[in-house]
Amino acid sequence: MSDRCKNWTPGVPPAGIHGADLDTGTVLNAALAGSITTAKLAGSITNAKLSNPYAIHTLTWNQPTLAAATGIGGFQCYGAAEILEVGAMVGTAPSSGTTSVDVHAGPNVASCVTVLGTALSVGLTSLKTRVAAPSGTLGVLADNDIVRVDVDAIGSGPTMANLSAWIVIKQYLSA
Fold first, then answer.
1. Percent of the chain, pLDDT > 70?
2. Between these two residues, 37 and 59, which has the higher pLDDT value?
3. How far is CA 67 from CA 23, 58, 75, 128, 152, in A?
4. Buried b (16+ CB within 10 A) or exposed e, 125-148
5. Measuring CA to CA, which residue among 167, 120, 119, 116 is closest to residue 139?
6. Which H/E stretch holds residue 162?
7. Fewest C-beta atoms under 10 Å: which of 67, 132, 146, 157?
8. Which whole-number Å values give the CA distances from 32 to 23, 26, 28, 125, in the listed order?
9. Which residues share a beta bridge with 86?
């Protein structure tokens, strides 16, 4: 293999490169020495990343008028997945009490269990984000598992509005 072309003017791209244009010299090991370093490989594609590809999904839901409800949103896994984060906030906070959002997962609606351990409580401050990670292995999802977002409780007051909830899911693309 050669590292240069014959009859090539530096800085002027050739119109086309053909086999006859290649120099017959070879690239020596000395020319390669030090060209690949550990620092250059940081963040690169590794065998582990290639053998475990995944996609990140951010699922969002909005409830303009706050109300306790089962299933304001849902998702069905196609392949194994993992819940990385659950978050919620209110656009206009209640004047008292707490608003609680919970995420449940399981093989079917009847057997869903919370992935957080305890519900995520949104406080009395508008636009303040509350984020939680799943408790232990509860956020690990099997193929065809159902994920459901519930509003377990709402605060009180005349102006509370605009509950936003989200889930970040890492879905594995290979078995």
1. 73
2. 59
3. 75, 23, 21, 19, 9
4. ebeeebebebeeebbebeeebbbb
5. 116
6. strand 161-172
7. 67
8. 18, 12, 7, 59
9. 132, 167
First to last CA, the chain: 39
Cα 32 → chain centroid? 37
In order, the DSSP letters of 18-56 are: -GGGB-S----HHHHTTSS-HHHHTT---HHHHHS-EEE
8 A C-beta contact, residue 76 and residue 145: yes
CATH assignment of 48-172?
A: 2.60.120.40
Q: Other C-beta atoms within 10 Å of 150: how many?
A: 21
At 63-120, the pLDDT tens digits run: 998 889 998 988 898 889 999 999 999 888 888 888 899 999 999 888 888 898 888 8
